[in-house]
């Protein structure tokens, strides 16, 4: 949960210079394949339809992360294009990937995202 707290803080701190979105992709731990027990999402099943995926993504609103939550289509085009499974942080600028984070949630580094955004904001402001 610390990563979510970090991301929420980054969104709050940099929303004047960047647009943020979360794209909910295929479920990393569906009950039928790789269940992880002891958390609020332990009942999510493998998405068979887009409606299943939307219903699962809807649960993210409880985190109030401060940005829109989009849903990857069932062909997993975003997950595949961005090698996003199970989760990953990106920064895109003018249709170019500027930051490509490690696989999350355990290996992504919110401090690197913060540093990039600070540098970008400073350059925009002429510092």
Automatic annotation (TrEMBL):
<comment type="function">
    <text>Responsible for the deiodination of T4 (3,5,3',5'-tetraiodothyronine).</text>
</comment>
<dbReference type="GO" id="GO:0004800">
    <property type="term" value="F:thyroxine 5'-deiodinase activity"/>
</dbReference>
<comment type="similarity">
    <text>Belongs to the iodothyronine deiodinase family.</text>
</comment>
<dbReference type="GO" id="GO:0042446">
    <property type="term" value="P:hormone biosynthetic process"/>
</dbReference>
<keyword id="KW-0560">Oxidoreductase</keyword>
<protein>
    <recommendedName>
        <fullName>Iodothyronine deiodinase</fullName>
    </recommendedName>
</protein>
<keyword id="KW-0893">Thyroid hormones biosynthesis</keyword>
<dbReference type="Pfam" id="PF00837">
    <property type="entry name" value="T4_deiodinase"/>
</dbReference>
<keyword id="KW-0712">Selenocysteine</keyword>
<dbReference type="InterPro" id="IPR000643">
    <property type="entry name" value="Iodothyronine_deiodinase"/>
</dbReference>
<dbReference type="GO" id="GO:0042403">
    <property type="term" value="P:thyroid hormone metabolic process"/>
</dbReference>
């Amino acid at each position: 949960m610390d990563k979510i707290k970090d991301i929420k803080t980054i969104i709050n701190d940099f929303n004047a210079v960047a647009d943020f979105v979360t794209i909910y992709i295929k479920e990393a731990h569906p009950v039928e394949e790789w269940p992880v027990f002891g958390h609020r999402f332990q009942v999510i099943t493998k998405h068979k339809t887009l409606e299943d995926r939307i219903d699962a993504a809807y649960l993210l609103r409880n985190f109030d992360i401060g940005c829109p939550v989009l849903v990857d289509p069932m062909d997993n085009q975003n997950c595949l294009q961005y090698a996003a499974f199970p989760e990953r942080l990106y920064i895109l600028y003018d249709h170019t990937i500027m930051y490509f984070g490690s696989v999350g949630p355990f290996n992504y580094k919110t401090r690197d995202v913060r540093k990039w955004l600070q540098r970008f904001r400073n350059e925009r402001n002429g510092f």
